[in-house]
Design brief:
The protein is globular. It starts with a helix and ends with a strand. Strands 2-1-3-4-5-6-7 form a 7-stranded mixed beta sheet, with helices on one face. It has 159 residues and is an alpha/beta fold. Helix content is 33%, strand content 23%. The protein folds into 2 domains: 1-30; 41-158, Glutaredoxin, CATH 3.40.30.10. It has 4 helices and 7 strands, in the order H-E-H-E-H-E-E-H-E-E-E. A hairpin with a 5-residue loop joins strand 6 and strand 7 (153-158).
Length: 159
């Protein structure tokens, strides 16, 4: 009787765990779950940029563990990580070996980390109004692009 009760409880817990995991994947989970460490991301930005601070807040609000590196000039960072001029924005980040350029939404970063595409990273060129860190004013639609070291791009998400 006790053995049967234990098996039933274990089965019930297993089903609950599977349901929670499945539900989390369908809804694009936060960068941290109850049993996992937060995703660490390193953001290179200029110290005076307010929209960069807004994007960092967006990442933290979505569970990322953010380390910021304030630098007066980001051109060497962008060159080091292969961010071509056409893709550049006001900040550059690195997460799990991928480059994140500009105001890329947290859910798109998480999608990239789940899917592991064979790219150098993702970018939102420029500073589109309504993107994370650029709230206020009229929201414009924009594309999140993947890119490789040769500069080839492809649309990864539309916002």
């Amino acid at each position: 009787m006790i053995g049967s009760l234990r098996n039933t409880m274990a089965l019930g817990i297993g089903i609950a765990t599977i349901s929670l995991v499945s539900a989390g994947r369908a809804a694009i989970p936060a960068a941290r779950s109850a049993d996992a460490k937060p995703v660490a991301i390193k953001v290179y930005k200029t110290p005076q940029c307010g929209c960069c601070k807004g994007w960092v807040k967006h990442l933290r609000d979505n569970g990322f563990q953010v380390e910021t590196m304030d630098m007066p000039d980001l051109s060497l960072i962008k060159q080091k990580y292969g961010v071509k001029p056409a893709l550049q924005a006001c900040h550059t980040a690195v997460v799990n070996g991928y480059v994140v350029e500009g105001h890329v939404p947290a859910d798109v970063i998480l999608k990239m980390l789940r899917e592991h595409p064979a790219v150098a990273g993702v970018a939102v060129p420029g500073m589109p109004s309504g993107s994370p860190g650029m709230e206020g004013g009229s929201k414009q639609s924009y594309e999140v692009l993947t890119f490789d070291r040769a500069g080839h791009t492809r649309v990864y998400a539309r916002k």
